[in-house]
Design goal:
This protein has 223 residues and is mostly helical. It has one domain. The protein has helices at residues 7-22, 26-35, 40-62, 65-71, 73-98, 110-113, 117-129, 132-141, 152-180, 182-185, 188-220.
Length: 223
């Protein structure tokens, strides 16, 4: 019986995916910030939103979207710019709230302090669907591990289950870890430091993504 994926390539994919799953990025930062609410239900709602977006990407990849991104680099750069702007907006509002010790409402943690699990889910979905790290994954990281001689839907199913499984473990660890530290993180002084740090990190990530994407867009402009 033919396996849906190439065993040797899949082994290498597991290593690459493990590194990507545990690396701090927009998704894991979102899980941490959500966990600061001290509400595990909100953490799981955020994780569900994040991974629902990942699943959408895999479905699109199965239908060849990653080939479109590779064939038309402009698509990748535009997604990167949109993702950078979204992350920058979240980071700015988070940082702004950290400047005010008395402030209890911030943009990213709006999902945490809200009683709406659906709102938390939507915020998580928005973070991941526009996450340039995800776009890079599908346009650069995943293709080398795909065997073009095997059925694409079956391969994407295995890669999707593996990716989402690893991400869920990593995000849950980050999110529930923050839940355990909620009392510490919600102390006014610690809250300020946390918000400032997360805000700076998100704005820094956004700035780097925007700079590189904008540079590539300018390079694509016909002379």
């Amino acid at each position: 019986m033919t396996l849906p994926v190439d065993p040797s390539k899949f082994s290498a994919f597991l290593v690459a995916m493990f590194v990507m799953a545990i690396a701090p990025g927009p998704a894991n930062l979102f899980a941490i910030a959500t966990g600061r609410s001290g509400k595990p239900a909100h953490v799981f709602s955020a994780i569900a939103g994040l991974n629902a977006a990942t699943l959408i990407w895999f479905i699109a990849a199965a239908f060849g979207l990653h080939l479109l991104i590779l064939a038309v680099p402009l698509v990748f750069q535009l997604i990167a710019v949109l993702g950078a702007l979204y992350l920058g907006w979240i980071g700015f509002n988070t940082f702004k709230s950290g400047l005010n010790l008395a402030g209890e409402t911030i943009a990213l943690p709006a999902t945490m302090i809200s009683d709406s699990l659906w709102l938390t889910f939507k915020r998580g979905f928005g973070v991941q669907i526009l996450n340039p790290k995800v776009t890079l994954f599908f346009s650069a990281v995943l293709p080398p591990f795909v065997d073009i001689t095997r059925p694409m839907p079956a391969q994407m199913s295995v890669f999707a289950a593996t990716t989402i499984g690893m991400d869920m473990i990593s995000m849950t660890a980050y999110g529930l870890g923050a839940v355990g530290l909620a009392k510490v993180l919600n102390d006014p002084h610690n809250k300020q430091k946390f918000d400032l740090l997360v805000g700076v990190l998100l704005m820094g990530i956004a700035a780097m993504i925007f700079y590189h994407a904008a540079h590539e867009l300018l390079m694509m402009r016909p002379l």
